[in-house]
From TrEMBL:
Gene Ontology molecular function terms on file: cholesterol binding
Biased composition (Low complexity): 1-13
Sorted UniProt keywords: Coiled coil, Lipid transport, Lipid-binding, Transport
PROSITE patterns recorded: OSBP (PS01013)
UniProt source species: Rhabdornis inornatus
Gene expressing this chain: Osbpl2
Comp. bias (Basic and acidic residues): 14-29, 308-330
InterPro entries noted in UniProt: OSBP_sf, Oxysterol-bd, Oxysterol-bd_CS
GO cellular-component term (any): cytosol
SUPFAM superfamilies, A to Z: Oxysterol-binding protein-like
Record-given protein name: Oxysterol-binding protein
Pfam families (UniProt xref): Oxysterol_BP
Gene Ontology biological process terms from the UniProt entry: lipid transport
Coiled-coil stretches noted in the UniProt entry, renumbered to this chain: 398-432
Amino acid sequence: TGFDSDNSSGDFSEANHKVPEMLDLDPHQSNRTGKHNGETEIQENGIKRHRTSLPAPMFSRSDFSVWSILKKCIGLELSKITMPIVFNEPLSFLQRITEYMEHIYLINKACSHADPLERMQAVAAFAVSAVASQWERTGKPFNPLLGETYELTREDLGFRFISEQVSHHPPISAFYSEGLNKDFIFHGSIYPKLKFWGKSIEAEPRGTITLELLKHNEAYTWTNPTCCVHNVIIGKLWLEQYGVVEIVNHSTGDKCVLNFKPCGLFGKELHRVEGYIQDKHKKKLCVIYGKWTECLWCTDPTTYETYKKSEKRGSEQKKKLNEEDIKSENDEADEMPEVQDTVQFIPGSKLLWRINCRPPNSSQMYNFTSFAVSLNELEAGMEAILAPTDCRLRPDIRNMENGNMDVASKEKERLEEKQRAARKERAKDEVEWHTRWFHQGTNPYTGTPDWLYSGGYFDRDFSDCPDIY
């Protein structure tokens, strides 16, 4: 996110660039319910069955190079660069944020535990699961327009969610979610800071994320790890997460420190997460380990240290690599490491979380999870009750999802031009932009600036919503 802008730099015209042929999609996998947009099957238990595939498969990106765009923009802010639509996925960044809720069962588990340590374990697993859907998702979501919103109510999962693009420069997305049983509140704002390193693009997701467990009168805060996309010049794009994430329980003083490890020269640490939970006296209560692409386990510190010592002794007995067998760092830089091993299980560990299986045709649907596939679904009657600023109504995203790439490109350019014109008009009249559902304030737990939900969205008075589409 952050590539698209109403201050486009470079002279790349998407509408005039030929888009490659569509990939083949197994017709038997195309839609198991036989329903498309506007048609949602009802199961016997009365719960709506959401779609299991997109209306059209993704286009091949093999004929395009990110570098062909970025090389014209060296020295410019990445937020000022317009990328061709073929590098997008048919979701807004606001919908991508909603994917935090895919593993909401972990919040429910945290609410149900009486032990604060077990609650922290569940919250830590939820924080890791929030980035798991990004695995192999190298397509960028659409940058939200100023004032764009997204809502999602899932009665089957027990939550409702609302988000709004509250700033365009810098791009800031604010969100708020609550349990339908009034058991939790989940909210925050994200300001992705982008850096271009020549061979990779790094996105540092600034902004605080807050989870409140109302039954236990507890609040947890954290910030997501840094995300990096490699091989933007040549080769296969691949993604890693790295950095230290600190989850603080502001009621008990407990803290969880998670280290998302960079892959390293030979990819030994690729996707690995390692950390611990400590109490307010800094005593380690348990150790957490696993991979953000796979699963997360926890065990007691003594067992973990004993295992690590025996593992170290075993590795020292192995034959050392000859110097000529070691590839230089320059040769290996940004190459996708081939790592076959999975998480090494330590006897006595407890499973905290495991990633959901993706649909069998996920690779032809932008590597979406089943949850992500349903996010842009426009069900019958929904258009009449949605805010006119909802992502589902964006014509460029809708056309891309339906496989109409030329139309999607033209619509994207039209929307960006409309946004530029609206900004110039406000500047001419000296009128400030006012957010609709969120306001600037202070996070009550960290004391840092934050965007807070103003309330009232689900009263559905959308009379003063801006015309952005």
